[in-house]
Amino acid sequence: MAENVLKMETTGQVAVLTLNRPEVMNSINFEMLKTLKDVIWQVRFQKDIRVVIITGAGEKAFCAGADLKERAGMSQEEVKKYIYTIRTLFTEIESLNKPVIAAINGVALGGGTEMLLACDIRIASMNATMGLTETRLAIIPGGGGTQRLPRLIGRGKAKELILTGRRVDAKEAYAIGLVNSICEPELLMDEAHKMAAMICEGGPIAIEQAKYAIDAGLETDLRTGLSIESNAYWITIPTEDRLEGLAAFREKRKPVYKGC
What we know:
This protein is an alpha/beta fold. 48% of the residues lie in helices and 16% in strands. The two termini are 30 Å apart.
């Protein structure tokens, strides 16, 4: 891992990935893209990691989007490669087989907002600012923003924010459903870890299948979605964890899940 652009710390079953370019508001350059993609790929196969938290270094920014200084020196073909890479990275985050929490600790613009949209749960500090501002640079969101934002907050509000390039503060983001909760800056990581701990109390296979059923089902009609849910449920039936959950309930103790 390139320590200068991304830090990874593991506490128990939770991995914290910190975008580490605070001097440029954690903007995304090619090195960060490649490093984060490699780490997400590794985490996918680490059974001891149950939840991922993504945040930014420093107090000012979660991620200010693409590194525009780097972008200015790119050829048209290099820009296409960058956009393809960032889009596939965010899809990898979205489809990760474990929950991803965005701990939004400041400015999150352009690709920064697109990154948090790819996460499952979003917790923002009161000093956070979000927005898809690309049209003000004569481009459009290219990391999934035009697709994920309307699915999350509705078509009309998404069009308003994307077409105007307007930024929203934490309170408005919470009001429109862009984030799940807001808190004071000094409490942000505590809140993210509390959420992660609650998720870790569930069965790993059940959590994975529930996430899959929600994400896959929402892209289909209800009938197909119910079939997806049914198939996901069947996967949990033969697991040892399901029997452990029943035994723990009967014995009035906390279950010990092993992910098998």
